[in-house]
Design a protein that fits this description.
Elements lengths: L16 E5 L5 E7 L2 E9 L3 H14 L5 E8 L5 E5 L9 H9 L13 E8 L6 H19 L2 E15 H13 L3 E2 L3 E2 L3 E9 L2 H14 L7 E11 L2
Antiparallel strand pairs: 1-7, 2-3, 3-6, 4-5, 4-6, 7-10, 7-11, 8-10, 9-10
Helix pairs in contact: 2-3
């Protein structure tokens, strides 16, 4: 489905698909290691400002925690990658968290997770974990959260439109959905309803969709390609 509230994405990226968190509230998961609490919060973030807002908000919420370590990956091509140890020994928190995001397999052999921020809030339990223990704890905290969090495939789609009489619009939309097409926003004009479909951004897919419209309308409607948008689709 389309998520028009999401921030604009780079439609000129090399990637045409990637995986991200499903739209909705933050996902939270807690892990305890030798009496230390590791509270992981995952949020879908499309900009660095949104990622930093998550950290700032959790600092206020968990103001008495010793550490608020973070990592985020942003962009279809994963061009923005940042992490912070927030007072933990260098390389023991932010880096393993970032690695957990980057190496998360979303399909066999596929590592394309992006537009995701992870913050791990740590309450120290009185037992020192050592560098190796910290790396394992922060990495496992993010990995375990990602295993449970809802993910979606985000695909770049060409938005194509067709204008049809109001009386025929409902039937045609149902037939297009039944044919497996992803519908975008619909607009209603004085004499026509403009249906929009989100087609894979390649010439063959657009041609096939155009042919389908011609068949379903007995040649009375044509499909006009427009710009591109990123569309959320079920994973798998």
């Amino acid at each position: 489905m389309l998520n028009p509230a999401d921030p604009p994405q780079d439609t000129d990226s090399r990637a045409t698909t990637y995986t991200t968190l499903a739209a909705g509230p933050d996902y939270r998961h807690e892990l305890e290691v030798k009496r230390s609490r590791f509270i992981t919060v995952l949020r879908r973030t499309g900009t660095e400002d949104e990622a930093r807002d998550l950290v700032a908000g959790l600092r206020r919420e968990f103001h008495d925690a010793r550490h608020h370590c973070s990592a985020f990956v942003i962009g279809p091509d994963r061009t923005v990658q940042r992490s912070s140890d927030d007072g933990e020994p260098a390389g023991t928190a932010g880096t393993p968290m970032l690695e957990a995001l980057l190496k998360r397999e979303t399909a066999p052999g596929v590592t394309d997770l992006s537009d995701v921020s992870a913050v791990v809030v740590r309450y120290f339990g009185g037992v020192l974990l050592g560098a190796g223990g910290l790396v394992r704890a922060y990495s496992e905290s993010v990995s375990a959260s990602l295993e449970r969090a809802p993910l979606v495939r985000r695909s770049r789609r060409r938005i194509c439109s067709t204008a049809v009489p109001h009386a025929a619009a409902g039937r045609l939309e149902n037939e297009l959905r039944a044919a497996g097409m992803v519908m975008a926003h619909t607009t209603y004009q004085d004499r026509h309803t403009v249906l929009r479909v989100a087609v894979s951004d390649d010439a063959d897919a657009i041609a096939a969709a155009s042919d389908r419209i011609l068949q379903l309308t007995a040649g009375s409607a044509t499909l006009t390609p427009g710009g591109t948008e990123w569309v959320d689709e079920p994973l798998g």
